[in-house]
């Protein structure tokens, strides 16, 4: 049986009791990055587990290997560095293969970045779409900004200013909300309207992981 288990996106206490119990019982734990997951394992004394590192660099190569482990062992757990697996993280190929072969899997509810950001934004909640990280190609970006809904985008502090400048024509006069470092010590909420003459120097000071919402309704 495969369990898809959300992990904290900031505060390590944002994990369910059930998630910890399953991780402790797991025969194999499929992780994205050993050093990131080790922090969580040490806090909750999740030791002596068989670990498989599975990320964007090896997901195609390791997919069949992981699938065989899921079939063979009673409990296999999939986690990402932070948040819910598959949400802008690896795991899609595994789930697709399980569905194709009628292999049961369970998904635990838990932490993610975009729902807290959506609620905090003050933008319409009944009409939104999750984009994740913006594509590179301009034609795909153009299609995204034609969607008349609240847009939810992930970005990094290194790229945010560049992306805002690149997509200025789509963002002008739009209400924007940036939720920085959700559930962490330096969590911050930034609300603004992108005006034509608005300087973006304040974006240089933003650090950490970012969830950006655009009121495109």
UniProtKB/TrEMBL annotation:
<dbReference type="GO" id="GO:0008168">
    <property type="term" value="F:methyltransferase activity"/>
</dbReference>
<dbReference type="GO" id="GO:0006364">
    <property type="term" value="P:rRNA processing"/>
</dbReference>
<feature type="domain" description="Tetrapyrrole methylase">
    <location>
        <begin position="1"/>
        <end position="188"/>
    </location>
</feature>
<feature type="transmembrane region" description="Helical">
    <location>
        <begin position="113"/>
        <end position="136"/>
    </location>
</feature>
<dbReference type="GO" id="GO:0032259">
    <property type="term" value="P:methylation"/>
</dbReference>
<keyword id="KW-0698">rRNA processing</keyword>
<dbReference type="InterPro" id="IPR018063">
    <property type="entry name" value="SAM_MeTrfase_RsmI_CS"/>
</dbReference>
<protein>
    <submittedName>
        <fullName>16S rRNA (Cytidine(1402)-2'-O)-methyltransferase</fullName>
        <ecNumber>2.1.1.198</ecNumber>
    </submittedName>
</protein>
<dbReference type="InterPro" id="IPR000878">
    <property type="entry name" value="4pyrrol_Mease"/>
</dbReference>
<keyword id="KW-0963">Cytoplasm</keyword>
<keyword id="KW-0812">Transmembrane</keyword>
<dbReference type="InterPro" id="IPR008189">
    <property type="entry name" value="rRNA_ssu_MeTfrase_I"/>
</dbReference>
<dbReference type="InterPro" id="IPR035996">
    <property type="entry name" value="4pyrrol_Methylase_sf"/>
</dbReference>
<keyword id="KW-1133">Transmembrane helix</keyword>
<keyword id="KW-0808">Transferase</keyword>
<dbReference type="Pfam" id="PF00590">
    <property type="entry name" value="TP_methylase"/>
</dbReference>
<keyword id="KW-0949">S-adenosyl-L-methionine</keyword>
<dbReference type="InterPro" id="IPR014776">
    <property type="entry name" value="4pyrrole_Mease_sub2"/>
</dbReference>
<dbReference type="InterPro" id="IPR014777">
    <property type="entry name" value="4pyrrole_Mease_sub1"/>
</dbReference>
<keyword id="KW-0489">Methyltransferase</keyword>
<keyword id="KW-0472">Membrane</keyword>
């Amino acid at each position: 049986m495969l369990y898809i288990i959300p992990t904290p996106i900031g505060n390590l206490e944002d994990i369910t009791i059930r998630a910890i119990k399953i991780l402790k019982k797991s025969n194999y734990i499929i992780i994205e990055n050993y050093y990131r997951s080790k922090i969580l394992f040490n806090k909750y004394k999740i030791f002596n587990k068989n670990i498989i590192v599975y990320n964007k660099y090896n997901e195609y190569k390791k997919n069949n290997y992981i699938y065989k482990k899921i079939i063979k062992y009673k409990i296999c757990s999939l986690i990402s560095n932070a948040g819910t697996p598959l949400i802008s993280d690896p795991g899609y190929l595994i789930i697709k293969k399980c569905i194709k072969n009628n292999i049961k899997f369970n998904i635990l509810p838990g932490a993610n970045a975009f729902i807290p950001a959506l609620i905090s934004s003050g933008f319409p909640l009944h009409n939104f779409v999750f984009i994740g990280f913006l594509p590179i190609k301009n034609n795909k970006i153009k299609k995204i900004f034609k969607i008349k809904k609240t847009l939810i985008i992930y970005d990094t502090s290194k790229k945010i200013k560049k992306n805002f400048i690149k997509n200025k024509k789509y963002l002008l006069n739009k209400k924007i909300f940036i939720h920085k470092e959700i559930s962490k010590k330096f969590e911050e909420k930034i609300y603004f309207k992108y005006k034509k003459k608005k300087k973006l120097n304040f974006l240089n000071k933003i650090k950490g992981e970012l969830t950006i919402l655009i009121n495109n309704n």
